[in-house]
Amino acid sequence: MDETLLSAPTVQAHITDGSAQITGNFTAEEATKLANQINGGALPFTLKVASYSGISPTLGQNSLTAMGYAAIIAFILIALFMIIRYRVPGFIAVIALVGQMALSIVAITRYFGVFNSFTMTLPGIAGLILSVGMGVDANIITAERIKEEFRSGKSLDSAIDNGTKNSLSAIIDGNMTVVIVSVILLLVFGPTNILSLIFGQSTTGTIYAFGYTLLMGTVSNFIMGVWLSRVMLKSVINIKGLRKKWLFGGVGE
Known about the structure:
Elements: H1 28-41, H2 57-86, H3 88-108, H4 122-151, H5 156-189, H6 196-199, H7 205-236
């Protein structure tokens, strides 16, 4: 078996009925071992490597540490940019981003148990970061639409209402295209994919992880960055001390 000699019995008779017997000076343990080896070699399967990737522990640890520092620095810079440029809408956007990240991490840890487990890879983390970028983009579109309403002379309530409504279609269009791509990645490269009947199982962990984290992040963006941020935005304008246009991106009064 596998070019290794297990036994060399002498054939003493024709094998006509598909069964044969090996005789000799065997102990019970030796006979059992030989039978297991013969049965194991008769199994009709072959092992094929579908994908392989490796990284040294030191390099992996350094990459994880560097990515952690980069994520913290990037989030601080994004938060400062959003708050300085868009003021109250920017502050609300930062809160929504924190919620989006928390919800995404909960989904990735399989708390909901909807999807099969997967190996978290660097492309998977990249999908999570990309979804955060989609969340920032959604809040920027909304804030810019509100500023446009102010420039056209609208009041605070009218600007907030029209700005959130006018930005919704563009945000949904952008996020839905990402959702479609993510679902395709999950269906094609998942553990049991839609092409299994044609090509067999062809799971690629890196691509599956990327699609999963991107999908969970985008769905979290719909919940936190689109719906909840609008709820918070329409709530804070009812606070008397905050009813000033310049706090929402308008010119000073």
